[in-house]
Specification:
Layout (H helix, E strand, L loop, with lengths): L1 H13 L2 E7 L3 H12 L6 E7 L6 H9 L5 E5 L5 H12 L4 E4 L5 E2 L3 H8 L6 E4 L3 E4 L3 H12 L10 E3 L1 H10 L12 E4 L2 H5 L10 H13 L1 E4 L4 E6 L3 H8 L1 H18 L4 H9 L6 H17 L4 H15 L1 H7 L3 H10 L11
Parallel strand pairs: 1-2, 1-4, 2-3, 6-10, 7-11
Antiparallel strand pairs: 4-9, 5-11, 6-9, 8-10
Length: 353
């Protein structure tokens, strides 16, 4: 027995974890973020800072800290890649067996990575810990709403460490189609090799790219839930996610949920989710749900006329030209009529699925 325990302990110690920190103009909180990473009790880390063209002191701060810790690897993109593109670049640069993403303004408890790595099992499940939020410069109403949202999280309600199979997670997804119940990147740890099975972050999304990815992993590999609050997501007015939300609320609240439905309906990585959707009562048909929501959106936009709605129409046309959306909706007569009017040659006519 002591030999087995020795081997397991040695395996734990040599496991390399890649901590991926995509940055863009993150000077205000980056030092605190990196300090919390460097002082982890689990020391076998590579800490990858992948900068997407910052114009502030982000790289100066990173380079200064890297002089004192060789585990830091700093990369600057030659061109701007955007949020999902920068996250994918992090994955390409990583060498670790496990991937731990962090926002440039987030921070970790000292034992965060140690606890999460010790919890992993042989199934290759993604590990997720409970959320802790640090609010700064955010109005009180938003805080109350977000805290209530977290309190209703089906994972948060579990209250104990538990392994969930892919079908269990699929049922959670079906109960909360438009909710990121898994959490922000800082609360996750996932095996690097899962990329071979489910692919990279989908650059069709911006604010929903993390949840779409977590769902894709969890409905294939399952999920290991830890009730411990091991990491902190900082929610503040200057955060990149909130900046994107403010600049394009229509896209984040309306368009991206519809893109997500289209992915659920036809991407092969969501096969288990679709199988569970057919078995629940009442049955959930992602294609029909997408069609109904898009039609309702069209009617809403058509009833209004303003420069804002003109922008919405552009977004809607782009949505309906999307590869997955057009594939899902091509069997509906209304979409065939729309495609004939707006697209010279709908993409779905020239592509075999």
């Amino acid at each position: 027995m002591w030999i087995l325990e020795s081997l397991l302990s040695r395996s734990f110690l040599v496991t390399l974890v890649s901590v991926c920190i995509p940055t863009y103009n993150g000077e205000e909180y980056l030092e605190e973020c990196l300090t919390s990473t460097i002082r982890q009790t689990f020391e076998n880390l590579e800490i990858i800072i992948c900068d997407d063209g910052s114009s502030d002191r982000t790289l100066d701060i990173a380079n200064q800290i890297a002089q004192a810790d060789r585990r830091l690897v700093i990369h600057r993109n030659a061109v701007r890649l955007g949020i999902p593109g920068n996250w994918n670049r992090c994955l390409d640069l990583a060498h670790g067996r496990w991937i731990k993403f962090m926002g440039q303004d987030d921070y970790l408890a000292d034992d965060c990575i140690e606890v999460m790595v010790r919890a992993v099992d042989q199934t290759g499940r993604m590990v997720v810990c409970d959320r802790q939020i640090a609010y700064q410069d955010v109005d009180h109403c938003f805080q109350e709403d977000f805290n209530s949202y977290i309190a209703e999280n089906p994972l948060h309600k579990v209250g104990e460490t538990r392994a969930f199979e892919a079908e269990d997670i699929s049922r959670f997804v079906l109960g909360r189609l438009n909710d990121n119940f898994i959490g922000e990147p800082v609360f996750t740890l996932f095996p690097h090799d899962v990329i071979k099975d489910v692919g990279y972050f989908d650059d069709r999304f911006v604010l929903w790219s993390d949840y779409e990815m977590w769902t894709r992993i969890a409905v294939n590999r399952g999920l290991l839930w830890l009730p411990d609050r091991l990491a902190t997501f900082r929610c503040h007015s200057k955060a990149q996610s909130r900046t994107n939300l403010g600049s394009s609320a229509f896209r984040s609240n309306t368009v991206e949920p519809l893109l997500l439905l289209a992915s659920f309906a036809c991407r092969p990585e969501f096969r288990t989710l679709r199988e569970v959707a057919r078995r629940v009562s009442p049955e959930i048909d992602f294609s029909r749900e997408l069609s109904q929501r898009v039609l309702a959106l069209q009617r809403t936009i058509r009833r209004k006329a303003s420069p804002t709605e003109d922008g919405y129409r552009v977004e809607l046309t782009g949505l309906l030209a999307d590869e997955y959306v057009s594939h899902v909706l091509k069997s509906f007569p209304w979409y065939q009529r729309f495609a004939r009017r707006h697209f010279e040659r709908p993409r779905w006519l020239g592509k075999a699925w």
